[in-house]
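Minutes, project check-in
Item: structure for the 318-residue chain
Input as provided by the requester:
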Amino acid sequence: MPPKSLDLFLRTKAGLSTTINKWERLAVASEKLRDQVICGEYFISEAAKWELTETLISEPCTDSVGQDDFYFVSLLINAGSTRTLEHDLGEGRFRRPPRPGSMIFGYEPRALLSQGGGPLHSIGIYIPAQLLQSRFAELWGKEMPSPDKLLSSHFLDSGLEVLIKRLNFECRQSRSPEKSLTIEPFFDAILDRLFLIAGRKLPEIKPNDRLRPDAVTRAIEFIDAHFHQELRLDEIAQVAGVSRCHFSRLFRQTMGQSLKQYLVEIRLNKAQEILEFGASDLTVGQIAQRCGFCDRQHLIREFRRKYGVTPDLFRRFL
């Protein structure tokens, strides 16, 4: 693991407790799965019986934490490896980039595969199937979307990411059962956001329209290595070995966002890392230049859009 990644995960480990050991579902899981959990936090809602975990694991594991009737959503906070993750949640195998913010949604009894590099720091929410389905019916009635639409690929959604992180923060602040009712509104907002994502009209993808996994891997590795430079669609498509038009369309279908959106997210993540752990004497303009933004104002605009504050304010209150 690179030194920066190792330092990041040591910090993560130091910030987590071992309350995950109180999780009944983990206690009855396979020994292999239990051994891969390094540390973590655990919370259960006394009101609705949904569960939340924040874990640091050595690597993904196909073994589930039980065959109970639960749906789950998992948000990747950080990964210590650049190796692409692979999942099969019951609707076919798909690849997932090891990038912060990547999410998967699954149904415990149908989850078949989870593998790739580690360690991984993630937040997971486990939702009783009856609770989720009744909430879907309440909002959508007879025309409710099926949550199974989310089982076939990873996805990105800044709104959902922020809500999950906020819920996790509130749970860590409120350990007493009598305080759990104050947390439920955040959980409800997460369900509402999931419904919107599941209800989106997804484009039809023909079997021969899928971008080959090796093409995606080559493109992502190239982008991650050259994000600080001015990148053109032509050269990235050439690295992937497909035409410009074909690559642009399939990249969006595979990654859930356009190439431009992905590149901006990569650059914002790097800017955030510099603001948190880099030299404090770097100006916002210098950070913008190092991360591949056009200028200082471009970084400020995109940073505020994602985090709600300017880079200077973000650094000042860390």
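Outcome recorded: The chain has 13 helices and eight strands.
No further action items on this chain.
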